[in-house]
Design a protein that fits this description.
The structure is a homodimer. Chain A is mostly helical. Chain A is built from 5 helices and 2 strands; from the N terminus they run H-H-H-H-E-E-H. Chain A has a two-stranded antiparallel sheet with strand order 1-2. The relative contact order of chain A is 0.14. The interface between A and B is large, with 57 and 57 residues. Chain A binds a DNA duplex (30 and 30 nucleotides) through helix 4.
DNA sequence: TTGATTAATCGTAATATTGCGATATATAAG
DNA sequence: CTTATATATCGCAATATTACGATTAATCAA
């Protein structure tokens, strides 16, 4: 890459971009969809569910966790993951805002 | 990268990931925020607004346009861009769904 | 036609992401 | 202690993204 001038953007812009970026991979979307489907917290079943190695799944899980899209708690030898909506309302509000500001008869 | 097994994911998952990915960069978020702020369609002012070269801005604009987050129309020597909410409701629904499925007392 | 303006594209270099096997860590069972 | 199970991390290789200067293409004005 060149140099991303992070300091030039507002914190809100950076936070949004970070969360969106974390959502920008099909494996991570699939993980979130799976966690949404299984009401109870599921752990290593995700590895079985996805077409990826255990190592790769673990990396995706860590990424989602670091950003605050999922939570994980250890119980015995396994780890229980579930959704964490910490940043989701931010995204919902952002998209809502964009939709409300979209002109209907412009650049058509 | 290794090999992303695109064919293993559903079309919906892939579409979501693609749109999120396009939103996963502060420059592109800033572009969308700017277009939301300026009701009228603005063109190369975006270059002035962002801490990036004209070439880089153009690339970001193309990316947003390809995915359907903005529209652009040529008028004279300049190009007029504006928001296109084609995929935004998909994102809003997805995040809404995740929020509704997030357990409140899990992995805490 | 010539020159100015605007935006897209090319080519290249720097950096980030992704995936996997191998390994490390941690808990539980025997 | 030893073994089995579950998960995280390391190290590497392959690939993707990003940025920029330079160039191209297109339109407008004179």
């Amino acid at each position: 890459m060149g140099i991303t001038k992070i300091e030039s953007y507002s914190n809100q812009t950076l936070e949004l971009a970070t969360v969106f970026k974390a959502l920008g991979h099909p494996a991570r979307i699939a993980i979130l969809e799976y966690l949404a489907k299984e009401k109870k917290c599921i752990c290593g079943d995700i590895v079985t569910e996805l077409p990826l190695s255990q190592a790769s799944v673990s990396r995706h899980l860590q990424e989602l966790k670091n950003i605050g899209l999922i939570k994980g708690s250890v119980s015995g030898t396994s780890v229980c993951y579930c959704l964490d909506d910490q940043h989701l309302s931010l995204i919902e509000q952002f998209t809502k805002h964009l939709i409300s500001q979209t002109p209907s008869n412009c650049c058509s």
